[in-house]
Amino acid sequence: MAKKKTSAFMKPVQPSEALAVIVGNKPIPRTQVTKKLWEYIKKNKLQDKEDRRKIVPDAKLAKVLGTATIDMFKMNAKISKHLTDPALAKAR
């Protein structure tokens, strides 16, 4: 039986230094990055109280998102800029 190819979402990625403060500095799958980010957001109560789709970042998360508030659906585009292939990160 052929080995199943790993999905792109499950391939480990290396978080940037700013993102590593929140999710850790070891390569992890994108799905885990998203999960850890939401844990951080909920733990620190960073969702807007009126509109829960908006994220109001604290100082650590603002370094990653670079904005005062952001819609949760646009957050992943900002996060992807902080993720690299671990093989490329070692080559630097």
Task: Give a quick account of the main beta sheet: strands, pairing sense, barrel closure.
Answer: 3 strands, antiparallel
Count of runs of 4 or more consecutive helical residues: 5
Strand order of the largest sheet: 2-1-5
Gyration radius, to the nearest Å?
Answer: 14 Å
CATH class: Mainly Alpha
Overall pLDDT metric: 88
Taken as a percent bin, the fraction of beta residues is 5-15%
Alpha-carbon distance between the two ends? 37 Å
Counting DSSP E segments of at least 2 residues, the number of strands comes to 5
The CATH topology is given as MDM2
The figure for the number of domains is 1
Named at the architecture level, the CATH assignment is: Orthogonal Bundle
- Residue windows where pLDDT falls under 50 for at least 5 positions: none
Helix content: 40-55%
Structural class designation:
alpha+beta
Written as H for each helix and E for each strand, in order along the chain, the element string is: EHEHEHEHEH
At the fourth level of CATH, the homologous superfamily is: SWIB/MDM2 domain
Coarse shape: globular
